[in-house]
## 1
Amino acid sequence: MSETAMNTASALAPQIQAYLQRSSWIRKMFETGAELKARHGADAVCDFSLGNPDLSPPDAVYTALEELARRDQRFGYMPNAGYPEARTALAGYLSDEQGTPVSANDVILTCGAAGALNSFFRAVLEPGDEVLCPAPYFVEYGFYAENHGGVLHPVSTNPDDFSLDMKAMADAINPKSRVLLINSPNNPSGRIYTKEELQALSDLLAARSREFGRTIYLLSDEPYRFLTFDDHQTPSLLPLYPHTVVVSSFSKSLALAGERIGFALVNPAMPGKDELLAGMVLTNRILGFVNAPAVGQRLMQHALGAKVDVQEYARRRSAMAEILEGAGISFFKPQGAFYFFPKAPGGDDVAFVQALQEELILAVPGRGFGTPGYFRLAFCVDETVIRRAGAGFKKAAAKFR
């Protein structure tokens, strides 16, 4: 290769070059937002693009921080699965939450739910294996699967309420299927899958696993389990399907997104669970996570059971619903999490999001979540910002009538 050719060759691998070309719509909106805020002032822009919790952590977190600061605390290496006492405390908490007895040996502490997802995929995926998930879905799932040779296979849901389309799911499962990944409450739709849906899904996976002669895992991503509305409950999958793995984090419930503390819980009823857990402890290490942050583990251990003010999110949800109704925008009212996923007036989600930008409102096109024709709004912002955006939503929607 000539020196000129070497100088013009990309420093990046082709796959990463392609990733940059189709990079997250959320990141694009973040960059657009920065430009608008620089031009018009931060207070003039109504930013609903990022799911970045703005509430303060509960008092239990600050109490734990004060105790850590006073103590002769060391923060060296620990067992790669996490501090034994932190895992024991978490297991007790999860036993109540999931309605199934869980031991410390069923739990691995990870660098957020993302670390848990990547550790699990690295442990179970072979090149070409498929990871199925209902659409809409969290934008990073495809990258996580591809990190480890997998292929994300989105499956459509029912368009009015984002409930599972069991026929579409049954048609999608094939001999390459290795994992079915669900996220409930869902980001971006706010849908909570019912126990009846999950039982039907579990029965389908059990039948197809027998048919294909290989385990199809059910992977449940649950960082919004704590945040539900109108008496909705998030059913536990552990009693329904033995080959279930639950991953979650305390980013939202304890407002510790930057501390990166999460976990993976392997169903105690899973045949061969000890081998899977050993594999995940290894992958958690060799992927470079090594172990979850020491401070985060201690904070989690002492703040289990505490959570941010859920009623504040309920008030914001009501305000956002009022604003959308006033603009004549059709939406499914979220049952959990802090997102709306309304239908884009005119049907073109990118065009409508651009119209919102003209009104200094930031949203994310639904195609970034595998579902064109919708757009996502994160209502983890102050209620005054939501209400200030009302006139802009009306003006943007009027352009498509």
## 2
Amino acid sequence: MRRVPGASPHRRSRTSNQSGAVDESDFRLRDIAVAAYGPSVLFGLAEGAMLPIITLSAIERGASISVAAFIAALIGIGSILTNIPSGMLATRIGERLSMVVAAAVSAIGLIFCILPFGLWVYGTGVFLIGAASSVFSLARQSYLTEMVPVGMRARALSTLGGSMRVGIFVGPFIGAGFMHFFGLASAYVVALVAVLGAGGIAYGVPDLDSRAHDRAADASVTTIGMLRRYWHVFLTLGTGIVLLSAIRQTRQIVIPLWAHHIGLSSASASMIYGIAGAIDAATFYPAGKVMDRYGRRAVAVPCTALMGVSFLLMPLSHGFTTLILVSLLMGMSNGIGSGIVMTLGADVSPSVGRPTFLGLWRELADAGTGIGPVILSAVTAVWTLGGGIVVSGVVGFAAAAALWRWIPGQRASRTERAPSPSEPGALRE
């Protein structure tokens, strides 16, 4: 990237071709690795360090089991309630500053979790962390979508998803190490240091001149206007995203549940879950390369279909060995879909009003994460756990069918489908 004469250290332009897109021949993903993925690894590490102990901390402060479960759910609630405002914030102040704000808010939330105050203060801290995570994720996705050439978009976004997973995978181990020596609250200190590091890196990355030029046009885009113009995309491809997110969230629940159902110890269940997570975190880059080369369907459909197969096979497993084999298939199939939700959102989002569109896109994904466990719970209540897992597998096949039907046939790696800047007027209320 070249420096713009007279610009501040935070304002740089991208190497562009005549069409205004980033020139792929002059771009190397490793050149932006630390700035692009360092904050994501650290944010993921922070979440990984604190997520396993939220309920334990709540109970330690006097919560009942049901209240502790609700406090743990505040992470997701904070994200859902903040997705659309996140798009508005990124539109007004830019992606870079939005990431800095997210790190600051997350740090405040972690301080609330560290301080020895009551349950309400602790719950507020957890909610703030969930809200900050939504702001950070949307801003990072929007930033990379603009920064990276279209032909490398899937690799960039799958690596973004993978870097977050690596952090979430490593975080619990680092947190456990500190807790062993310094107690429960030290895991939040680890998370606090990580988010401050993420905020520091985000502050140092360059702004994008292209977004600065589009800022006035972005400001004219409203959420209602975006829904009116792109309702068909949200209704069709968005349905596939909801179903994909549903089975992804359910997969995190069924492994420990089925392990307990067949009589495995908690240690065995945790080992199986961890090994599946390692396979999941290790397959993100090849997935992005396949998407860029062969199109989004080449990854999205196998990802969801194989997850469906793994769900159907799980009730047939009756011991450690068979369950770990099924879990490995489940982890691998989810891993090859790393970044698919972000990539598809970037592909179908307009160039003007992109943060607003992505906020709505994330809302669909979060809706799916809420629906998946509800389906499993409801079917299990009226049938059996095995029946609930089978029905959840059918959700995976439905996701594969929806994504096959509605993913645009023309590869985004060859043609940018975003509307021209002349369109923003059509998006106003």
